[in-house]
Amino acid sequence: MTTSSTTAKSGGARVGVQKFGTFVSGMVMPNIAAFIAWGFITALFIQTGWLPLLGIDAVWVQQLGGWSLDPEVTNTGLVGPMITYLLPLLIANTAGRMVYGTRGGVVATIATVGVIIGAGIPMFLGAMLVGPSSAWVMKKIDALWAGKIRPGFEMLVDNFSAGIVAMVLAIASFFLIAPIVTAISNGLEAVIAFLVDNSLLPLASVFVEPGKILFLNNAINHGVFTPLGTAESLEKGQSILFLIEANPGPGLGILLAFLVFGVGLLRASAPGAILIHFVGGIHEIYFPYVLAKPLLVVAAIAGGATGVLTNVIFQSGLRAPASPGSIIAVIAQTPPGSIVGVLLSVVFSAAVSFLVASIIIRAGRKRDLEAMANGDDALAMAVAKNEANKGKGSSVGDLLGTGAAAGATAGVATGAATATKIQNVVFACDAGMGSSAMGATVLRNKFAKAGIEGVNVTNKAIANLDGSEDLIITQNQLTDRATEKVPGAIHVSVDNFMNSPKYDEVVNMVSE
């Protein structure tokens, strides 16, 4: 265990992108249910949806889907208004709340209406830009007269100042921001169209798959693919962009290769990891397996590119984001005409990543067996490689018990930490939902078996850590950021949220 009394050093560009991705995912992830609802409504009720294909084209289906068999009748439906207004405004409100609470959320929502109306197209990028910036402006303006308002006039000043600021920002967004964001959106769409038309989109996997392993997946998926894919889905009924990052095939192939050819803990934990990854949709579960053998990123790239190429050939895609990236969510968001292409993209990507990963794992199998015979496992080897990848020292070795100084570090830290009773344990990850929720469940069960009561175990996004945490558990790639956010807490770094030996140490520490 380690605790930090000094400010953590910046992790450079990678940590900067991770922070951006965390903020972006913080805007989008809480609203994924709305995207899923919109995806189901689209899948069922539009003219090419499931119900019309099954011969159910009653008036109420047409009204909900926004189409009509009668040329004299125009139905607005739910699909268009939801994607044009509801989803961007939800994102803007969430972003505003992240920056400046409820007040920021209200101002952000009003200001974003300006960019939506001014652009006339789904403004997800506009919402991500105008939402947080509007809340920030309101926060700075409030600071100008904080503590200077006469008693009894607070509500008057607060309401009128927010209303006036929101009005000005909405007008500015209408005339100034909307044309800029529209041009950016059109430019990005042109780039994607060029890649698709020239069959170059599979090359995106060269950047996407390594980015996922470095926990940049939220920046990639929610910052780029979700807004562009949603706009494309409104126009074409589906988008291939939803499957570039979310395809569970590459990770499944790598885990299957460890199940068949791996050794030690990596092989033993593979079955559970497969279930969590493929069915649960928590892709972070396979990242440590790639870090154990970094060359496996080649398998991930090959699998990802194969999946994208398959979707390009079959012209298949999803109606809405598959979040989490579970095979269940993927199938649920697949339109009827894309079922074959989407399923083959998952199967082929898993097959290719399995073949490549099998070659890599088998090539080092003898060396891994020898290391395990000497008391080491592939996870221990991954610690040293993780330090090399970071380009600086890492506490992962100490935290996993593989470092020479583990005992000394743990002794000093534990003494400082246990001076205060541990009551609030938090699992923190990028989005605060998938892998951290899984880890929290595992630890709660361990506490229950140990008879420990009165300890609150929750999961949060790193960006939402507020200093009330006594002990924070993160994956090793994210520990620096959590330490920087809450330097006074005990920080435990694990390689795998599903099965870490550090959990038993945490149970012992809390029980003491």
Describe it for me?
Helices cover 65% and strands 5% of the residues. It contains 23 helices and 5 strands. Strand 2, helix 21 (434-449) and strand 3 form a beta-alpha-beta unit. The chain is globular.
SSE map:
Layout: E1 2-3, H1 12-28, H2 32-45, H3 50-53, H4 59-65, H5 79-119, H6 124-144, H7 154-197, H8 205-213, H9 217-236, H10 249-261, H11 264-268, H12 270-279, H13 287-292, H14 297-314, H15 327-332, H16 339-363, H17 365-373, H18 378-390, H19 396-399, H20 406-417, E2 424-429, H21 434-449, E3 456-461, E4 471-475, H22 479-485, E5 490-494, H23 502-511
Parallel strand pairs: 2-3, 2-4, 4-5
Antiparallel strand pairs: 1-5
Helix pairs in contact: 1-5, 1-9, 2-4, 2-5, 5-6, 5-7, 6-7, 8-14, 10-12, 10-14, 10-16, 14-16
